[in-house]
Structures are given as structure tokens and as C-alpha cells.
ComF family protein
Amino acid sequence: MLDLILPLECGGCGAPSTRWCATCAGELVARAAEPRLVTPRLDPGVPVFSLGRYAAARRQAIVAVKERGRADLIGPLAGALHLGLSRLLGWGLLGTPLTVVPAPTRWLAARRRGGDPVTRVAVEAVRAPGLAGVTVVQALRLTGFARDSVGLSSADRQRNLADRVRVIRPVSGAALIVDDVVTTGATACESVRALQTAGVPVHAVLALADA
């Protein structure tokens, strides 16, 4: 009866009567060699890692959180990010202390979504056991007028964000920028530039997905 009133479906494949099915959970878990190094069209000057391609269940979960308010999917995405962070630390590619800095989002978009989903995913990922010495600081903000980047070319995305990313909170030690999707690399470039200009060493960028 409850399913008839408030239909429940998997955020990855749409299967009924579950918020997140076992099949989609398996797709979201990073494989043995992931996070993998990717090369966005715009080079931010630091390594860029991705947990997987922006497709299938991974894509659906990210879209559902950002555009449909599926806060219940923050947990699965945070679990994937936690594993990715653990592996980068375990492989010796990152060290502690480490500050995770969520990539900035447009203020209007964050307000419409009831908060910044990337920050919520990062906070939950770091809160889980096993990441001692890792903290999250929402240190970046988009200032001025920045258009939605959907449909923009690499050059247009770069111009859209040029000098619009600002550091609004202090960051101690080395930083890792976390984003939901890396496409052209424009957001990563401006985020790295802003932090480095503020004297913050940025060691890498980690994305939930790459397109």
C-alpha cells in the first residue's frame, strides 16, 4: 500500500520496492584498479582520478541526488568515495593530514538542491571509520555570475569560471579537491588555481565519475 502512495524505486536502475538494489551497489563499487588516472581536456596541473565512468548506475545516482533530491543516495556515493580515498592513501599517492575540499557549485543550484551534494557526500565519506587524519573543509565558492556548464564547450566552460572561484575558508596542509563529475576539467583548473594562489598545496583531484 505504501508503495502505491509513495512509489519506491532504485536510484540506479528504477527497480521497484528498493532505494538502491544490490546490482547497482555492485556497479558503484570501485574496481581493483580504481580510482584510475584520467586526462581531462583542460589540465589542472595535478593528477586527476576518477572512481568510474559517468554511465549506468553511477550516472543515475549522481543525477538523482543533484536533480531529484534523492538524499537517500548520499550514502552509496559516500561509500564509493570512502573506498576511493582509502585506496589513494593505501597506495601512497596521498598522505595525511589531508583536507578534502569539495569543488564549488553555483549558489542558486545549491539552494535549489537543499545544499551542496558534493559536500554532503564528502562529509559522510570522511566520517566513516578508517580515514584518520582526513577532514573536509568547504573552502571554495563561486562568485559573480557563472552559467550552468551543461552544453558549454571546454573553452566556454573555462571562460565561464575564469577568476570566479574564491577561497572563503582557511585550509591547513595539503588539499584534495573532490567533485562529482569531471568533464572538461574547467572546474578543477579554477579550483586548483584558487587554492594554490592562497598558498594551499593541492595534491590531486578525485571525482565520483568522469565523462
